[in-house]
C-alpha cells in the first residue's frame, strides 16, 4: 500500500497542468494545489494506521493486504463493508466535501475486470491482440502499485440539436494505428481529478452519432507525453484561517479538461477500440460502481445538511416553532430516504455471471434521483433556516479587535451558545453552500453522476418497467379481472410469470 | 380457523347498524353491505385453501394452525413472512381497494399483548383487578375464535382552537364504575369497519386536555347492548355490471361512527382505565403494527398506479414521448421508493424487551410520509396521462347496441388494443380515482394512518433527531473541526458515542 | 332575447341523444337531463330580469338589446364588462359548477366573424362560393335567434405514436361534395354540452397528419338528420335532497361524443373546407375567447376553494395554527394570482386589425397554466384541512331520526357553529370534489382548455420568447456588456429594437 | 440634484467603517469599496444626462427639477412612471445586481411624510416637542440635499424561543434623554448599504417583547460620532478582467451591522419615541414602498433568468428538446407571472387619506411571495440547463495562450456561436449564481424584504381574508344555498356587503 510520501512523490512526474491560466510546476507546493495533494497523501497514510486496519484494508486472494478501494465484492457482506468504507471517507471529508479520492474512482475498472472478454471480442481493428489478457495484467499492475485511477469519458458540449455534430466535434479520436499502439488526438472535456491522479482511464459515452474513430478506451499515465491538463481556477485558500474559510482553507479538488495532442496509447493499455455498438452497452456498467459510492456520499451529504439544520435552529431558538419543525422533518426525511435506498439496493443485489455481488442498480439510481430531485430545495431550506446569519458575519480579525471583539461577541451569541461557536455553524454553512468553493461542490453532485432527467429516461428503458414487465403485472391482472394474488393468474393465461419487481431475478434479466 | 360461512353467520347477531339513514337488519343480504360481507367471507375461506397454506397460515407455539393475522413476529424472517402475507391481500384486493380486513386490524393488540403489565400498573380506579392477566386471556380467546377485531380510537372534531374543548366534547367517557365493569357513554367518531367486525377495540388518542374519565381502553362485541353503529352511505353498486363498475360492483367497506349509550364494559374486557399519562405514551405503539401493513398497502397502491400508467400510455401510443416518459419514471420511482422504505424498516428492525421483532418505525413512518406527500400528485399525473378517456366513455349497454356498438368499437380502439380492452383500463382508473367509491378510498389512505403533518411533528420528537442526537453528530464534528470518521471524535470530548442513525441501537433507545 | 320557455321548447326537436345506454326522448323531463335544462332556461330568463339589465345585456349597433354573450368587445371597458358578466355567471353557478352556458360557448365564432375572409380565401374545393359572406349571414342569424352554440373540435384518441394514424382514424371527414353542400361522416369525440345546444359548431384541431378531407368547419343544428349524440352517463340526482346532494341535485351538464352518419352540411353553413394549412393557424384564434372566460371561471373556482378553506378551518378551530395559516395563505394566494393574470391580460390587451379588443392571450394562457399547475394540489390542501369531515357524515334522514338526530347534532357541532351548518360546509366540499359529479367537474377544468403541457409547448413557439426576441434582450445586453437600460443599446448594434415583453406591440407582432 | 463628484466627496466625511477586519479610510479609493462608490456616483450623474431627463427626473410642486427617487405618487400614472424609473435602474444594473441605490431606499420616508401626525401623537417621553413638523422639515432638507438615505431596522438574532429574550438582547435602546436629544446605545444588525449612504434611517421592527426603550426612530448622518459600521468582507474584485469576473469586477454593495456607542440623536432628527404600540402598526407602512420596488426588481431578475436560459439553450442546441422547452416555459412564465402581479397592484391601487396613490400592497406581497417561492428552483433550473458549462471553463489568460487558446476556442464553440461568446454566457451565469458575489445577491433577495413564511402569516391577518370577509363571501353564499351572483344575497340577510376581493375599497379598509 502506497504511503502519503510516495503519493506526493508520484505527483512530481513532469505532468503538464494549467490552472487559472498558469502552468503549475510542482503540485505539492503550489498554493492552488498543495492543499488537496496533502489531503490525498493523508488518505493513503490513514490506510497504514493500525487502528483502522479492519475498516480500511483487506487481505486479497493472494494473501496481500491492500486498501479496500481494490476489493471486488463477492457477497452482500462485502458490499456492506464497502459501504462502511465509503461512509468512513465521506465523514472524514466533512460530509463529502471532496468527492473523488481513489475510493471513489478506482472501481471504474471493476466492471471491465469482472468480464473482460467482450471488450476484446467486440473490438474492431486491434489486429487480434489479446485485449482481455491485457486488461487482467493491467489490473494486477495498478493494484500492485496502489495507483490512483481517474476516469475521463465526457465529450465536449457542441451542438445537441444535430446528431451529426458529434462527428464534427473536436472530441478525442484515433488518428493513427501503429505497431506500438493507437495514436489519439483531441479533447476529453471533464474529469475529476485527473490532475492529481496517477493514471487516466479514458473512454467515450456513446451518443447517437458517435463514430468508430471516437470509440476508444484506455489507461495512460497522467504524465504521458502530449497529454495537457487544463483545470478550472482553484478556489483553495491556502493558508487562510480555518475559522474564516473552514473548507477552502483545506484545499480544492480540481476538475479539468484534457487535450490529447497526438498521444500514443500502447496496445497493452488499450481496453477496447473501434466498435460504437460496444460503446452503447458495456461501458455503462463501468459506472454502476461509481454510482454506488456516489449514492452513499449523497446520503452522507444529506446527513450533514440535516444535522446543520438541527444545530442552527437550536442556536437560534427556532427549532420548536411548528413550521420550522416541519421543515426540519423534511430535512431528516431526506437523509433517511436516501439511506433507505442504499439499504434496498444492498438487500436486492445480485451476483453477476462471474461472481461479483452488485447492489441493485435500480435502487442505486432511484437513490441518486431522490437526492438530485431534492438537494437544491433542501439546501434552500437550510439557508432559509439560517436567515441573515449566513450573509453577514464578522471575520476572525474583527473578533480579535479589542474594541469590536467584545461588542460583537455580545451581539452574536445565541441561546445557550457563545458567539464564536454560533458563528462557526454559520461559517460552515456559508463556505459549503454560498462560496465559489461550495457551489462547485453542489454543482459536482448535480452533474457528476448523471442528471436527473437522464436517470429518468434510462429508467424507462429497463425491462422491469415495460407495460408487459413485472411492475405492471398487478395492473394487467386488475384490468383483466384476474386475481393478482394468485401466482397462476397471468401464467395460466400464458403471458408472463416473472418475479415481483425489485426481486433479484427481475434485475439480472434486465441488466 | 373460521370459515366464510361461520363469518357470515357471526354478522347475524342483532347488532345495531344505520347506513344512509336506514337501519340494516341483515348485513349479509342488504345491497349496501352484502358485497363486502362476501369479500370477508372469501377472505376467511382462502385461509383454508390447501394451495395457500404456507402463504396464509402458520403453526403457533401450541401446534395449532392459524391464520397468519395472528402471528406475532419474532425475527426478521417472520416480518418478511408477514409482508408477503400483506402483499398477498393487497394484490388480491386489486391493489388494496379494501383496507381493513383482519390482516390489517387484528394486530392492534400486538403491542398490548407483548407487554401488558404497564397497562395494568398505570391504571387508576380499577380496584386492583389483574388487567394484565385479563389481556392475556382475552388474546387467547379472540385468537381461538379467529375474531375480526376492529379499532375505534378517534374522537369527535370539536374545537381545535381550545384544549379545554376536549373535556366539553361528547366523546366517550366513563359514567359509572360497578362490580361488573365500567359504564361508558358518548361517541367514538371513526372506525373502519366495525360494522363488519366481531369485536370493537376502543380507546382514546391522547390530546392536550384529555380527561381521566375519557381515558378508557377495552374490547367489546359489535352487538353489545347500547352500541349503535352509524355508517356513512354505502357506495356499493350491488348487482352492477363489473365492466361499468369494476370495484363498486364488488362492495364497499363502510366507515362508521359509534354511539355508546351507557354501554357496560365488563372488567375482563377492560385493557386500561383512568390515566391520561399512560394514554400519552403506550397506546401509540398499538398502531405501529397497523402502520407497518398500511405502508405495505400503500406500496402496492403505488404499484397499481405505476402499472396503470404504463398500460394507459401504451394503449394511447404516448409512452415514448420524452415528457410522458419522464412522468412515467416518476410514477415508477414512487413505487420503488415506497418499497425501499419497507425493506429498510425490515433491515433495521429490532427486538423489543419481550422478544417481538419490530420493523424500524422510523422507516415505516417515512414510508407513509413519502406516500402521503406524493400520492395526490401521482394520481393527478395518472389522470393527466389518460386525458379525456376517463371522463367520457360509453357503457356496456351502448357497446351492445347494434347501431352504436360497432361504431364505438371503431372509435375507441387504440394502438394494438381493442376498444373494450382499452375502455377497461379507463374504467378501472375512473372507478378507482374519480367516483365516490374511489375518492373514499383515496381519502382513507390520506387520513387513516396519520396525516403527513402529524407524522412530521412526531418525527421531530424522536431522540434520534435531536441536536445532540446521533443524526447531528456529523454536523457537530464538522462544526467543531473534529474528524467525524474517527469513532473517538466526540467520545474523546466526553459528549456522545451513540451508533449511527438508522442503526437498531439508536431506534431502541428512542422508542 | 330568448326566454327560458322558448329554450325548453327548442330542445324538443327530435335530436338523437343517448345517455348511459338509453335513448332520451324529452330532455326537459328525463331525470338524467331535466335539471340542466332548467338551469339553462333560468339562464335565459335572468337576461329578462329588469334588475340585471345593465349587468347582463347590451344594445347592439342596430339598437337591439341583446344578451351580453353576443357582444364583441371593442375596447378595454368592453372586456371588463364581459369579465363582470362572466363573473356573474360563475358566481351564480356556485363558483363555476357548470362550465358551458352560452356565455362560454357563443364566443367560439368571435374570431371567425372578426376576420372571415381568410376562411374563404384559404378554402379548397368550395367551388368559389362566398364563404365569408355566409359567415356574416350566419352570425346575424344565430344572434337574432339567440342560439346556444356548442363547439365540437376534438378528434378521437387513437395512436399518438404514429402521425399517419391520424389519417387512419374514424374521425369526421368529407365523403362527398354536392351542389347542396358537403357530406361528412365519422366521429367528433368530445363536446360540452352539444346535447343541450341549438347548433353544433364543428371543426378540427390540426395535428401532424391531418388530411384535407378531415379539414372541414361548419355550423349545423343539433337535430340535423344523421347526427347522433352519445353522452356519458348522467350524474344528476334529480329529486335528491339539496342537503345531501347540494350540486348533483341541481343537474349535470353532459359531455358527449357525436357520430355524424353521412350528415349533409349545406354550403351556407360551411365555414371552411379542405386546407390543412389553414387549420394549422387560424382556428387557434377561435378558442382565444373561450380561454378568456375559462381563465375567469378558474379564478372564481379558486375563490370558492379559498373561501371554503377559510370556512372549514374556522368551523374546526384550526385556522390560527401556524401550519394551517400558511396553507390558507397558499389558497388565498392561488386565487389572487389567477386574478392578477386576468387583470394583466386586460391591461396589456390590443386591437386586432378589424377593431376587436383582445385581452393579451399570453397572460390568459399563463393564468390557465397557473391554475392547471396548482389546482389539484390546492384541492388536496382543502381536503387535508377538512380531515375526516368529508368522508364520514350522516344524511338528512339520520339527522331527522328522533334517537340519532339530537345525538349527532351534539357530536357534530363545532366552534360557534351548529352541526347542520358545519355539515353543509363538508357536504359542499364532498359533493364538489369527491363525488363522480364533482370529479367530472375537476377533470373538465383539467382538460377542456388545453392541458398544461400543451400550453407550455405553445408558449415556446411565441416570437416574444425566442432567444432573439424581446424577453431575452436584457440577457443579451448583459452578456454582451452593454447597458440594457439605454434604449439604444442593441439598436446601436443594429440587432433588435422591439418593445419590452408584455407590451401590446410585442403581442400583436407575435399573434 | 447631486452630481457624482459631490457624492464621492460626501463619502469622505470621517465615517467609521470596518470591512473584512480592516478600518477603511477612504471608501472611494479602497479596493473593497471603490467600485460601488463609482457605481453610485454614476447613478447620480445619469440624472443629469439630458437624454434621460424625462425618464429619471420630475419637476416638484415648487417647480424644482429633482431625481424621481423623491417623487411621491399621486395617481396611477405616477406609480407607472415610478415603475419605469425602477425598471430603468434594475436593467442598468444588469438585471438588478445592485439592490439598494437611492431609488430603492429614499422612499422609506414616504409613509412617514404622508401622515406624520401619528408619529408625534403616539410618542411617549418626547416632552411635547413638535415631531410631526420636524418630520416635514427633515424631508424638505434631505430632498434639497439629494441625500442617500439608508434604513436600519433589523435587530440581532438572539433567542427566538423566548419573547423575553428581546429585552435582554444588546439591541439599540435609549440610555438617556437630554435637552439636545436622545442618547442611544447598542446594535442594529443589518442594513444595505449604510456604509455608502448619507443618512441612516433607523428604527425598530416590533416583536413580542419589544420594550419602550428599544422603541425609537430617527435619521442621523452616516458619520455621526459614536456610530461604527461593521461590514461583511467585500467580494469586489477591483481591477479584475470583466471577462473573468463580469460583476464582481464592477463592485460590491456592502451589507453592514452598526454599533451605536452612546450616539446622540438631536430632537429634530427623532421621528418617534417610546411607544411599542405605535411600533406595532405604523412603521410597517414605511416598507410598503420599498416592497413595491423590490417586487419590480425581482421581476427584472426573473426576466434575466429567463433570458439567460433562452441564450444558453440556444448556444447548446438543446432548446427544442421537449423537456427543455417545458423548462424554458416555466422560466418565462415565472417572469410573466411576477410582472402580472405588478400590473395588478397598479390596477387595484388606492389613494391614502392624504392623497398618495399606493399600489395594492396585497398584490405587491403576492408578487414577492411568488418570486420567493420559486426563485431558488428557477435558478436551479437555469443551472441544470447549463450542465458543466458553469463549472469548468478557462480564463482569459488561457484563451490568450498561443498553444491552448486556439484549441480551447475549437473545443468550446457551439451552435452558431463562437467560444468566447458562449463562455461569456456561462461566466455571467457563474458569477451571478455560483460565486460568493452572486450568492450574496441571491440571499439578499431571499431575506431583504420579508421571508416567504412571514409574508404568508401577514397575509392571513388581513381583514380581506377572514372567514367573514369579502373573499369568503362566495363560499358563504354557496354553503348557505344563496345565489352569490345577486348583490343582495348576503346583504338581504344583513351580514355583509363589502366589495369583491381585490377591489380598492377592500384594501383601504384593511390597511
Structural features, described:
The structure is a homotetramer of 511-residue chains. By secondary structure, chain A is an alpha+beta fold. In chain A, β6 and β7 (181-191) form a beta hairpin. Chain A contains 20 helices and 14 strands. In chain A, 47% of the residues lie in helices and 13% in strands. Chain A has helices at 4-11, 34-46, 53-56, 76-92, 102-105, 110-114, 117-121, 131-145, 165-168, 276-316, 322-347, 361-386, 396-400, 404-412, 419-434, 436-447, 452-459, 473-480, 488-492, 504-510, and strands spanning 16-19, 22-23, 57-59, 65-67, 149-152, 173-177, 181-191, 199-202, 216-221, 227-231, 256-266, 270-273, 350-351, 357-358. The model of chain A is unreliable at 491-511 (pLDDT under 50). The interface between A and B is large, with 75 and 76 residues. Chains A, B, C, D: Keywords: FAD, Flavoprotein, Monooxygenase, Oxidoreductase.
What brief labels describe this structure?
20 helices, disordered C terminus, six-stranded mixed β-sheet, homotetramer, 2 domains, 511 residues, four-stranded mixed β-sheet, alpha+beta, Butyryl-CoA Dehydrogenase, subunit A, domain 3
Question: What is the strand and helix layout of this fold?
Answer:
The structure is a homotetramer.
Chain A: H1 4-11, E1 16-19, E2 22-23, H2 34-46, H3 53-56, E3 57-59, E4 65-67, H4 76-92, H5 102-105, H6 110-114, H7 117-121, H8 131-145, E5 149-152, H9 165-168, E6 173-177, E7 181-191, E8 199-202, E9 216-221, E10 227-231, E11 256-266, E12 270-273, H10 276-316, H11 322-347, E13 350-351, E14 357-358, H12 361-386, H13 396-400, H14 404-412, H15 419-434, H16 436-447, H17 452-459, H18 473-480, H19 488-492, H20 504-510
Parallel strand pairs in A: 1-10, 5-8
Antiparallel strand pairs in A: 1-2, 3-4, 6-7, 7-11, 8-9, 9-12, 10-11, 13-14
Helix pairs in contact in A: 1-2, 4-10, 10-11, 10-12, 10-15, 11-12, 12-17, 14-15, 15-16
Amino acid at each position: 500500500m502506497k504511503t502519503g510520501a510516495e503519493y506526493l512523490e508520484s505527483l512530481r512526474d513532469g505532468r503538464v497542468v494549467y490552472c487559472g491560466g498558469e502552468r503549475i510546476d510542482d503540485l505539492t507546493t503550489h498554493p492552488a494545489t498543495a492543499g488537496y495533494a496533502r489531503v490525498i497523501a493523508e488518505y493513503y497514510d490513514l490506510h497504514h494506521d493500525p487502528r483502522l486496519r479492519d475498516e480500511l484494508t483487506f487481505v486479497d486472494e493472494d494473501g496481500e493486504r491492500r486498501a479496500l478501494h481494490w476489493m471486488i465484492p463477492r457477497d452482500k457482506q462485502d458490499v456492506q463493508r464497502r459501504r462502511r468504507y465509503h461512509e468512513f471517507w465521506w465523514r472524514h471529508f466533512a460530509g463529502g466535501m471532496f468527492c473523488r479520492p481513489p475510493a471513489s474512482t478506482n472501481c471504474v475498472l471493476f466492471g471491465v475486470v469482472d468480464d473482460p472478454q467482450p471488450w476484446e471480442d467486440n473490438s474492431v481493428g486491434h489486429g487480434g491482440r489479446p485485449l482481455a489478457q491485457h486488461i487482467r495484467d493491467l489490473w494486477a499492475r495498478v493494484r500492485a502499485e496502489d495507483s490512483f485511477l481517474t476516469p475521463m469519458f465526457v465529450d465536449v458540449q457542441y451542438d445537441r440539436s444535430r446528431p451529426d455534430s458529434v462527428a464534427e466535434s473536436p472530441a478525442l479520436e484515433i488518428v493513427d494505428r501503429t505497431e506500438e499502439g493507437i495514436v489519439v488526438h483531441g479533447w476529453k472535456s471533464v474529469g475529476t481529478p485527473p490532475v492529481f491522479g496517477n493514471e487516466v482511464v479514458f473512454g467515450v459515452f456513446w451518443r447517437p452519432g458517435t463514430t468508430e474513430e471516437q470509440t476508444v478506451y484506455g489507461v495512460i499515465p497522467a504524465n504521458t507525453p502530449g497529454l495537457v491538463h487544463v483545470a478550472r481556477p482553484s478556489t483553495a485558500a491556502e493558508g487562510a484561517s480555518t475559522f474564516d474559510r473552514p473548507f477552502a482553507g483545506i484545499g480544492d479538488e480540481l476538475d479539468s479538461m484534457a487535450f490529447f495532442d497526438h498521444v500514443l496509447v500502447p496496445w497493452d493499455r488499450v481496453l477496447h477500440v473501434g466498435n460504437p455498438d460496444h460503446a452503447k452497452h458495456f461501458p455503462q456498467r463501468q459506472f454502476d460502481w461509481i454510482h454506488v459510492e456516489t449514492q452513499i456520499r449523497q446520503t452522507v451529504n444529506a446527513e450533514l445538511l440535516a444535522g446543520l439544520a438541527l444545530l442552527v435552529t437550536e442556536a437560534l431558538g427556532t427549532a420548536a416553532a411548528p413550521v420550522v419543525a416541519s421543515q426540519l422533518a423534511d430535512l431528516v426525511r431526506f437523509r433517511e430516504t436516501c439511506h433507505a435506498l442504499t439499504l434496498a439496493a444492498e438487500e436486492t443485489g445480485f451476483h453477476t455471471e462471474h461472481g461479483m455481488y452488485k447492489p441493485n442498480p435500480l435502487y442505486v439510481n432511484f437513490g441518486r434521483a431522490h437526492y438530485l430531485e431534492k438537494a437544491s430545495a433542501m439546501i434552500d431550506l437550510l439557508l432559509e433556516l439560517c436567515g441573515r446569519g449566513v450573509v453577514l458575519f464578522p471575520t476572525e480579525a474583527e473578533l480579535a479587535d479589542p474594541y469590536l471583539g467584545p461588542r460583537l461577541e455580545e451581539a452574536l451569541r445565541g441561546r445557550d451558545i457563545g458567539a464564536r461557536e454560533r458563528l462557526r455553524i454559520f461559517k460552515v454553512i456559508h463556505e459549503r453552500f454560498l462560496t465559489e468553493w461550495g457551489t462547485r461542490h453542489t454543482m459536482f453532485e448535480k452533474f457528476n453522476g448523471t442528471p436527473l432527467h437522464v436517470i429518468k429516461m434510462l429508467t424507462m428503458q429497463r425491462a422491469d418497467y415495460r407495460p408487459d414487465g413485472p411492475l405492471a403485472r398487478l395492473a394487467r391482472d386488475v384490468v383483466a379481472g384476474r386475481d393478482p394474488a394468485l401466482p397462476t393468474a397471468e401464467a395460466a393465461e400464458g403471458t408472463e410469470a416473472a418475479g415481483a419487481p425489485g426481486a433479484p431475478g427481475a434485475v439480472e434479466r434486465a441488466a
